[in-house]
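Chain A, query sequence.
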Amino acid sequence: MKRFCFRALVVTSLTLLVASLVNISADLESSLGLDTLFQIRGNQHPPTDVAIVAMDEASEHRLGVGQDLTRWRGFHAGLIRQLQKQGARLIVFDLQFIQPHPADDEALTAAMRAAGNILLVECVQKFRHGDQDFYGREECSDSNSRPAISREGDSNIELPEQLVAMRKVSPTPAIAAAALDRTPFYLLNDAENASVREIWTFFDALAETPSLPVLTWFYYLQDSGQLDGAKQPLSAWLTERRRACKTMIDQPQAETPLERQIDRLVCDGDSRYLNYYGPPRTLRMESYADVYEGKVTDLQDKVVFVGRANRQFSPGKSDFFQTPYSDSRSGKMAGVEIMATQFANLLEDRFLEIPAPTWLVSAAFGWLLALLLIRFTGWPGIVLSLVFALVYAGTAIGLFGQRHWWLPVAGPLLIQLPLSWLLSLAWSRYDLMRERGRMLAFVRRVFPQWVGMLPSAPGQWTEAGHFAPASTEKDVSGLCLATDIEGYTSIAAQHSPREMWTLLNTYYQVLGHPVVSHDGVIADVTGDAMMAVWFDAPATQQRRAACLAALEMATAVEAFNLSSSLAPLATRIGLHEGDLTLGSLDAGSSSHYRAIGDTVNIASRIQGVNKYLGTRILASHSIAAELDDIVSRPVGKFRVVGRTEPVTLVEIVGLKHCGDAQPNEVHGLFNDGLAAFQQGRWPEAANLFQAALTRDANDGPSRFYLEKALEFGEVPPLDWDGVVVLDGK
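Chain A, predicted structure.
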């Protein structure tokens, strides 16, 4: 068991380490795993309260503005009035009004003040190396690339890479004063061609400033009467509340789902993973010109986002970004769509969540995978592990679609699964070579003259040098395991020799595997009986290995009988330890390897006692006496056929687990009954055995001793010494 768990731990650790390294270096889980989950899930319906007014190609042509953003300023006042007329709840401009336009700004600010529901974006610039390397969006970058940090001395001296600065660039004072509120919205430069999967909710580097979608959601809650006690401007109130989260140890417990959502948003982290609804233009999108000209009339109570969002993707357009749905057909997604998606996620509380650390989920996956591959070696393990991986993948897809939970899939399925296959196959190969080496060492020790008869493989299995003369037999102190098939004669009479040969050929493979896997040696197979031995190892190690092998043999035979179309082969097992002679017996021109000695005979007789007690595995008491991880119980003293000295036997019941702290009630009653039986208190013993059978009617030893107690109660045996005499094998 320890070796089994050790191997599983090694396979789990190695596969997890490789998967983690690949994920760190290639961002595999996001770039492949998350994107694949989105593609499999498909599109979902966005909330109807969100609409985008797109400054698209059609509007550029109809309004005659072309691609020059400065020429749109004169139309924004009319757009605001049209949206106000329709009753839009909030109007959010994803445009930077940084440069003043005196000819248009007066009308624009008047329309903004009249509407009273205009939210504006503040540009965020992130600088490295002063003005040599900075990131921002649209005109924020094009018109404001002045250095964020003053440098003294030679201006040609490069700044260190780790010197990073961020700053906000606000709209003109007049436009900022006319707006309801304003706050930044930051996206990475699309020139980096990286997919936008995670989005800022707060900018800790900008004094805990909330992002524009977060600010919009809070104004939406306030307008709908769901937010009480907040003070305008909400951007300042949100900043204060987030700072309070970091300083307050004991915060009031949220009572409603909305309060809990607000607490998570404000206090837990500064970013969220976006739950995209589909490719670009999945959210409702109306052409700027259509809205401006009054052709769209159903925007009442909508939160309207205004920004550049071309209907037909054109390479080279700025402010467009990769998403998990981006491909050559759908193109990139406009920044205003990403902003509206974040607001829609807030509105429905459906950001992607990671329910447990990725490494922990991957470790659990790898552990279960390793257990399957090590428990079921070869193709059965590979098939079962593949089924398990498919179940895991289906679970991950289902949770992603239903609960918005993101479980790792790329690392477990593409790295851990095949790597576990390779490691398990390599370990199986190692076990095979180790077993062959052990067999070769055994033959060299006991029968060196047979080394040349073993199968050859390159570099192994050949005689290396000359062996000193040795005898053909060896005396050892070992342990013997004997098996027998109950009712074999009647089973053989019902089938042809060919059918029995096929049945027994498979049966002995099943029976022999546990012996070999626990370092035993199969000494003899005759008809329906098999003999295995353990020797040349510490006594405790031999006893544990033999008990484990016996338990696994019993389990394997049960599984074999369920799968066999012929009669079940009920197998009895006996264990005994003592002196053995291992050697070959010459019969004519051939030699046969055997284990010889009284130990072998007693093991065979102990195996036969199972027939009387209705048990599967019996052993002499010394074998299980010091094995704390093996569950056993005494079953009495017996004088078997051909032996004058009695043997004290125990039943090998199973492995001891963590939950086995409570004693077995049936075993306790049986032990008390056995003590009374051995002391000649027949009525008391009969009552105790009857009580045990009342709790477990299938307890064979209790049934056997109940019959004996009733029999001896009527006719007591002469010279009773507590030993049961068996007249048959």
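The radius of gyration is 41 Å. DSSP finds 23 helices and 23 strands in the chain.
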